[in-house]
Input
Amino acid sequence: MYKKSFVIVVALCLSLMLGTVGCARKKVRHLASDCGLVTPGITTKQEVVNYLGQPDSAYKLPEGNLLWVYYESKSTMWRDTPYIGEKIGEETYEIVKVTFNGDIVQSIVYRTMSEEDFKEIGPVE
Output
């Protein structure tokens, strides 16, 4: 009886550990909530890096301002299904655009895009 219980406990612990490791392989960003921490006219570049991390893209705008773009794909559970995931699953993109005037945030915009729109126009429009 004791040996059987021990085997069950060890199996459950191993399953839990393997499940946790599987979830930890990809760093998760929460762009929607993190961009709420940024206040135009007050937040600095360093604070944006602290909240959102390094930008995925950076652009120099014609008027001399700087644009940082953050984006991340979100897919449904069905999207990861082998063979049929691309047909029944859905992928959307979260995009955050932060414009700087000097070292201070001038504006911040959050939006979502479908996979088709993202492929067609990209994260910057």
Observations:
- The chain has one domain: 28-121.
- The first strand starts at residue 57 and ends at 60.
- The radius of gyration is 21 Å.
